[in-house]
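Thread: LysR substrate-binding domain-containing protein, structure

OP (GT): Posting the sequence first so everyone is looking at the same thing. Length is 294 residues per the record. Can we get the structure tokens written out before standup tomorrow? I want them in the notebook alongside the other entries.
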Amino acid sequence: MDNIRHMPSLQGLQALVEVADSGSFTQAAQTLCLTQSAVSRKIQQLESHFGTSMFLRTSRSLQLTAEGEQVLASARHILEHLKALEDRIAPQKRPFRIRMHVSLAVRWLLPRLNDFYRHHPQVSLAIETVATEVVEPASDSDAYILYLPEPSAAPDCLTLFEEALVPVCAPGLALASQEDLAGFALLHRSSDRNDWRYWLAANGGRSLDEFRHLPFNLDELALDAAARGLGVAMTDMTLAGESIERGVLVIPFGEPLKTRGIYALCLQPSSAAHPACGAILQWFAEQAGTPSNL
């Protein structure tokens, strides 16, 4: 019996993380649905277990001690591993997590979610959006949707739709032909301006230097600016599809330009453990290349 070591309380470790993150016992108590005195007792129990103080307390601040920093790092590590273990053993208790660009979530996935939940009412999707141009997979995501400049033959990647660039603008903008572009600003969805550069090169070869420019970092912003009459945006036809169907945006001229780029759903290795993975993948496969109103 003397060889049995008593371990610190998990609730105490949770309390330490919340207090350290919030810098407040009161806020930590609200997050943990406990009283402030209960959180204080859990921290005191940790301090008693390790025989040292976790925080330096003054009337104005709350600062971790050197020992508290060490315990905090271990507490985060332990809690993250327990969460990952629970996700692997009992994934049905959590949503299927998908990471994607915010414009793709708003413009492509959101109009289709009613269909998903109509067919899979017991399955929950957790959508995490990013505003960066490159979508990096997160360690806690089951899948992610990203743009690829070339089609992929990877078995864990499903092509959702091919990129087709089109100019779009507000219905009332006086644009009868490409020559009329000179009177309006070109709206860009990324800082590199490549979309307009590719389209102009394929449609007469005019230079970007001939035009005024309004750069944005999101399709959402560029398309909203176009709908407000600020200029002409270059975007993917699928992403603008719902706005075109509703008459908010129009394609003033030109044919869609296929770039060979694709948007693809890629699975993380851990996704196979989620019981809904097969049904979710099948639904995305059914949506691939279909308009949002089907």
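GT: Both are above now. Quick notes for whoever picks this up: The chain is about 35% helix and 20% strand. The beta strands are 55-57, 62-64, 96-101, 125-130, 143-148, 157-168, 185-188, 212-215, 232-236, 257-267.
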